[in-house]
Amino acid sequence: MPVYYRKRANLGAGAHLNISKTGVSVSQRVGRVTFNSRGRVSVRILPGLSLRLR
Predict the structure, then answer these.
(1) Of the candidates 8, 13, 42, which has an alpha carbon nearest to the alpha carbon of residue 26?
(2) What is the C-alpha to C-alpha distance for residues 31 and 47, in angstroms, rounded to an integer?
(3) pLDDT at 54 over 90
(4) For a surface tag, which of 10, 12, 29, 38 has the fewest beta carbons within 10 Å of its beta carbon?
(5) CB 19 within 8 A of CB 28
(6) CA-CA distance, 12 to 49, in Å (whole number)?
(7) What letter does residue 5 receive in the DSSP assignment?
(8) Are 1 and 17 in contact (CB under 8 A)?
(9) Are the C-beta atoms of residues 26 and 18 closer than 8 Å to each other?
(10) Using an 8 Å Cβ cutoff, are 18 and 8 in contact?
(11) How do residues 36-49 score in pLDDT, each as one tens digit?
(12) HEC-encoded secondary structure of 6-54
């Protein structure tokens, strides 16, 4: 069974610093869309349900 590690720190104004086993990234939320510094985009469809692109 794999073990995952993730920590998220709030930077304010919808921005977060994400720390995981594979590295560090920054994410910025604009409305229902979240952009990640690694090129990942997530769209929030409903609370608890999102679509991850790229």
Answers:
(1) 8
(2) 13
(3) no
(4) 12
(5) no
(6) 23
(7) -
(8) no
(9) yes
(10) yes
(11) 999 999 999 999 99
(12) EEEEEEECCEEEEEECCEEEEEEEECCEEEECCCCEEEEEECCEEEEEC
